[in-house]
Amino acid sequence: MHLPWLAQQYERTCADCGGAWRVPRYFARGRVQSIFSFFLGSSRTGGFDQAESDREIQSSVEIAEQAEAFRKCPECGSKHYSQRPLRS
């Protein structure tokens, strides 16, 4: 469900070179689930499945790589930026 007052994307502006790039809300908010959270969740289900664990870890690694790509300016690689919501 799309809530119009909730930004779906953010625009980051590099403090060093002035370049701008868009970031999905999932990555802009800093709430990327860690592997530690996964292990807490798996212990609640009562069992441990190695194959499922491996898939979850691989998925977490891929998400972390995506999040890291959004943290850097695509033009100069700086991690110094300001951020503002883009509302439609």
Which features does this protein show?
19% strand, 3-stranded antiparallel beta sheet, alpha+beta, 88 residues
Summarize the structure.
The chain is α+β, with helices and mostly antiparallel strands and 88 residues long.
Characterization of this structure:
The structure is a single chain. By secondary structure, the chain is an alpha+beta fold. The protein has one domain (9-86). Helices cover 41% and strands 19% of the residues. It contains three helices and three strands; from the N terminus they run ββαααβ. The chain has helices spanning 25-28, 35-44, 50-71, and strands at 9-14, 20-24, 81-86. It has a three-stranded antiparallel β-sheet with strand order 2-1-3. Strand 1 (9-14) and strand 2 (20-24) form a beta hairpin. The longest helix is centred in the last third of the chain and has 22 residues, at 50-71. It is flat, with a radius of gyration of 17 Å.
